[in-house]
Fold:
Amino acid sequence: MYKIAILLGSVREGRQSQKAAYYINNELDKYENVEVKFVDLFQLNIPMFSKQLKPGDEPEGKLKEYSDILRESDSIIIVTPEYKGGYPAVLKNALDHVRDEMFFKPVAVASISSGGFGGSSVLTQLRVVLLHMGALPIPARLPVSYVQDVFGEEGQLLNESYKDSTDTFIKRLLWFTEAIAEKKKQDNNN
Structure:
């Protein structure tokens, strides 16, 4: 059983990215060997990053819940909108709060926009941040343009042209998830 965290990187009122996150969650639920943990930064209400924990220190409250979900996950999907050419500050704040939780974990990014570029600037920026964290951003990506026309409120697919790209996105993430998990298992047995 592989554990995958979906990190919804927006708290904005009227956000559209949650529709894509719900759709990805629904598609992952079809896999018997996958357990999904949904991390909504709006619900967690993580405080602003003001203090780096020292090695061995445990986060408290909502930060501990967030940290534990990421630590226990085999891989992570970040679903984020593009705001003014970048990703939301709340997502950067959430990433700043973690360290070892994402080390050597495959991370896939689904970028969302209400316009025609599918959040392409976010993909590049997040990959740089993820690499600095020791995470493994996978080559597969899921840019979604005009998100308001692609998904319904509960994540139902309104535009069938995204079905194949989502399937490919998930299958490639699962390939990396399985490969890295197997390698970690071999290393732990030696």
Remarks:
- The first strand starts at residue 2 and ends at 8.
- The helical segments are 17-28, 41-44, 61-72, 89-96, 120-132, 161-189.
- The first helix runs from residue 17 to 28.
